[in-house]
Design a protein that fits this description.
With about 210 residues, the chain is an alpha/beta fold. The chain has a single domain, classed as Aldolase class I (TIM Barrel, Alpha-Beta Barrel). About 30% of the residues lie in helices and about 20% in strands. The chain has seven helices and ten strands. The strands form two sheets. It has an eight-stranded parallel barrel, surrounded by five helices. Strands 9-10 form a two-stranded antiparallel sheet. Helix 1 packs parallel to helix 7 and helix 6 packs parallel to helix 7. The longest helix is centred in the last third of the chain and has 16 residues. It is globular. The two termini are about 20 Å apart.
């Protein structure tokens, strides 16, 4: 499982820059929001991802058949599910699944203990937007989830190069995921912030 993921990538130059910065995974939004790209764009961008970096397709309440089709078409090596996808749906994907838990309260993670997925991603809760809000939740809420969930836990939601080390220490999460916190504008990444984020996150994991 990767340690640092940069999500919401829309441009070829950003794929190359993020890989050079040392990120372990790159996420491509396939369902909704200002960072959404087409399958043709995703296929082109995934081809630029180097072998040791994981391309992740990000989906929200899509049909299982569409997700499977796009995994094959675009070359995703893992998927991130941001919607209300049940455990049985996750088991049928065919590649590693990151199931997102939107932390509307400190105990909501308990509903996901029976999910047989590769990892869980804890994100902030907004009833209108499934992700990419740039808002954080109380990172200390993640600690019990990290201890009790049956797979590695990624932390997301409002992370930046300024708070990622504190967030890792407070949560004890295995991995981190960022999108808006390293952007100039939605879908356009800031090379300096990406580099700082990756460096500081990996330093936190080594401590």
């Amino acid at each position: 499982m990767f340690r640092v993921k940069i999500c919401g990538v829309t441009r070829s130059q950003d794929v190359k820059m993020i890989a050079r910065a040392g990120a372990d995974a790159i996420g491509f939004q396939m369902s909704m929001g200002p960072r959404r790209i087409t399958p043709a764009q995703a296929k082109r961008l995934v081809r630029l991802v180097p072998p040791l970096v994981t391309p992740v397709g990000v989906f929200v309440n899509e049909t299982l058949s569409r997700v499977k089709k796009l995994i094959k078409l675009c070359g995703f090596q893992a998927v991130q599910l941001h919607g209300d996808e049940p455990e049985n749906y996750c088991r049928q994907i065919g590649v590693p699944v990151l199931k997102v838990i939107r932390m509307r309260n400190p105990s909501v993670y308990k509903d996901f203990k029976g999910f047989g997925v590769a990892a869980f991603l804890l994100d902030s809760y907004n009833k209108s937007i499934p992700g990419g809000t740039g808002k954080s939740f109380q990172f200390q809420w993640a600690r019990k989830a990290v201890q009790e969930l049956p797979a590695p836990v990624l932390l997301a939601g409002g992370l930046t190069s300024d708070n990622v080390q504190r967030a890792v220490r407070m949560s004890d999460a295995f991995s981190v995921d960022v999108s808006s916190g390293v952007e100039i504008r939605p879908g356009v990444k800031d090379p300096r912030q990406v580099s700082l984020f990756v460096q500081r996150a990996k330093k936190a994991f080594r401590v």
